[in-house]
Amino acid sequence: MLNQALVEDILYAALETGGDFAEIFVEDKTSSSIQMLGGTVDTAMSGRDFGVGIRILNGVFAVYAYTNDFSRENLIKVARNAAQAIRGQKQDIRIDLRKSLVTPHHELKLLPSDVSKARKIEYMRRAHIAASEYDPVISQTRVIYLDDDQKVLIANSEGLFVEDRRAHNRLQIEAIASNGSEKQSGQYGPGAHSGLEFLDNLDIEWYAREAARTAKTMIHAEFAPSGKIPVIIDNEFGGVIFHEACGHGLEATSVAKGASVFAGKLGELVASPLVTAIDDGTIKNAWGSLNIDDEGSPTQRNVLIENGVLKGYLIDKLGSRKMGMASTGSARRQNYQFAPTSRMNNTFIAGGNSTPEEIIANTEYGLYAKYMGGGSVNTATGDFNFAVREGYIVRNGKIEKPVRGATLIGKGIEVLQKIDMVGNNLAFGQGMCGSISGSIPADVGQPMIRVSELTVGGR
């Protein structure tokens, strides 16, 4: 990557016009994707991101520039050009870079480059066969294999000089059921911050059959009713509602400028006392985990809400300056073309004391959302609507019948306050999270929960 002497020179150049902090992010990332339709490889792509991002801070004013020209002349030029946006007086800052060693909490045994394309395609073929053979109603399958291998170097004018290596892989499986007049789909996308040993140890056939089962169930389902009713939201992908409608509102990106319903509410009761919510970037080999964040700080387990009380936010370096609070190791970015900002890693509602069976048995009438789909959210207000990918009517404490077309509509903070049962079956689902610093891997999670009343939009 870059040698230490050159990094120091770039940082000094970045500070020539009065900045009080400068940072370099160097990235060398390879990635590949393969798509299989109906058992046949449709597309295969690979690429490489190789570049440097330079950030300069002066108080709470930030400048960011990037380049993929690694020549010394160009890097110094980019740093000086970026510094022209700073209108201050040059400060006497001495830079003493000291290399830090990263403890690799997320073991990478089998890197993507060490595995043949034929072996990767075999993972996909197994998923196709299991899904397509599940039932004659399954008319099509789509399987996408993804991997990346990222090396980073992060250095700053405070003396930080650290390198890290990250690798991710994921298998996205979709099964489509058709009855001649319409189609329904089921999906699953397990992934990890890990080498390809993750896929070697994954029960690929189970995930494929589960995607097919969802598609088959929904093709035969009736349309969902609408109205305000109790809603049971299952574990794993159910956590997407907290992530989108509440999690983004707990990031310094929103809180620092007051564009969040959670701003100024530390120590206040913002949720049901049954709710404890956490963002944890240290979970071993989890999809959203990292050894260090994209500012070089170790990731942490951050308690956001504890027994309903707001305890903290997710804070990056710039957010720390704006809010007067310490960084929480939550700075992330898609690649060197983005400045880092506060982002989630693995965000979840902690497990409670009720069993899933107890939650269903204690519901006289309501909707059971087994799997959640996509939706939209206003991060400033928490207003959301999310599709239910697989749903059921619950009547007299029992699951009665499957229904489709349901949409959950509400406001994140109100949903938190209306949670009246929390299960003991915490599980996580993998997804990509988008924000001003790009698209990043993030886990969502929760146990089964019950919301006492939520608006359900049906047909």
TrEMBL record:
Presence of the UniProt keyword Hydrolase in the record: yes
Source domain of life: Bacteria
Identification of the protein by name: Peptidase C69
Residue intervals of the Metalloprotease TldD/E central domain: 112-218
GO molecular function, one term: metallopeptidase activity
PANTHER family the record matches: METALLOPROTEASE TLDD, UNCHARACTERIZED PROTEIN TLDD AND PMBA
UniProt keyword annotations, A-Z: Hydrolase, Metalloprotease, Protease
Residue ranges annotated for the Metalloprotease TldD/E C-terminal domain, each copy included: 226-458
Pfam family of the protein (one): PmbA_TldD_2nd
InterPro entries: Metalloprtase-TldD/E_C, Metalloprtase-TldD/E_cen_dom, Metalloprtase-TldD/E_N, Peptidase_U62_metallo, TldD, TldD/PmbA_N, TldD/PmbA_sf
Annotated organism of origin: Tumebacillus flagellatus
GO CC annotations on file: cytosol
Family: Belongs to the peptidase U62 family.
Domain named Metalloprotease TldD/E N-terminal: residues: 22-85
Biological-process GO terms, alphabetical: proteolysis
SUPFAM superfamilies attached to this UniProt entry: Putative modulator of DNA gyrase, PmbA/TldD
